[in-house]
Amino acid sequence: MKDEVLNDPVLEEIWATRERIASRFDYDFARLCEYYMEFQQQFGDRLVPAPDVHVPEAASRRKPAA
Question: What distances in angstroms separate CA 16 from CA 3, 9, 12, one per listed residue?
């Protein structure tokens, strides 16, 4: 099954698109976030909303990795 996932043309197209977008912003995470936030504002009515996910209290208090 792993080989099937790695050879999935839909996933390959998603990965290629993600790579093209990231390269436009020189892989700068802050610039990518800004782009996606603007994209979300512009096309938010077309996006599927994220499901409500319960985050355990202990997980929300973890310190971010350095």
Answer: 18, 10, 6
Residue 19 in contact with residue 11, Cβ under 8 Å?
no
Q: State the pTM of this model.
A: 0.57
Looking at the domain assignment, is residue 16 inside a domain?
yes
**What domain count does the chain have?**
1
From residue 58, alpha-carbon distances to 17, 50, 52, 64 in Å are 35, 22, 18, 13
Domain assignment of residue 66, yes or no? no
- The verdict on residue 56 lying in a domain is no
What's the pLDDT tens digit per position in 23-57? 999 999 999 999 999 988 998 888 788 788 877 77
